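User: Predict the structure for this protein chain, please.
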Amino acid sequence: MVTNNKNNNKNINNINKITGKVWKFGDNVDTDVIIPGKYLRTTDFGIFAAHVMEGIDPQFSTKVQKGDVIVAGENFGCGSSREQAPLALKYAGVACVIASSFARIFFRNAINVGLPIIEARIDCKEGDIIEIDTENGIIAHGNVKYQATKLPEFLQEILADGGLVGHRKKVGVV
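Assistant: Here is the predicted structure, written as C-alpha cells:
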C-alpha cells in the first residue's frame, strides 16, 4: 500500500508503486460530486475528506481506505476548476485516480496538489486489487497488464515532491 496518512497527507512517499483496492465510477464525474460546493468555504482538509464523493456515493468517505484507487471512465473531474476536488480525494486517502480521460483543469490541479493520476482504460471490478507503476505507466490487474499514458518526467517529479509547491521549494524557487 501507499504510505500516506489519511489524516495528515502531506506527501505520498512512494508514488511510483501503488497497490490498492478499486473503487469504480463512470463517465463525467464532475467536481460537484467529488466535493459538493457547500463544503468549499473551509480550508479544513478533514472536512473535504469527510465529504468526498458525497454527491455520487454518500457513504464513500466512510468506506475508502488509505491507498485505495479510483477507476473511472471518460472526462473525470469535469465541471468547475476547484482545486478542492483533487485535495478531497488525496486527503481521503485515495492513492491514485485512473480514468479513460480527465478534464484538463482537474488533471493539472491533481498534479499541482500531488495526487497521482493515470489515463488508461482497464477492465476491473470494484473491490479488485490493482498494482500501478506510475513511473512506467503500467497497471497490473491479476495476470493482465495495461499500458497507460505515461506522465512526462517533469510531472512525475512534481508528484514525487508532493505537488507543485513542494517541488518549487525543493528546486529553490519558493
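The domain at 17-170 is CATH 3.20.19.10 (Aconitase; domain 4).
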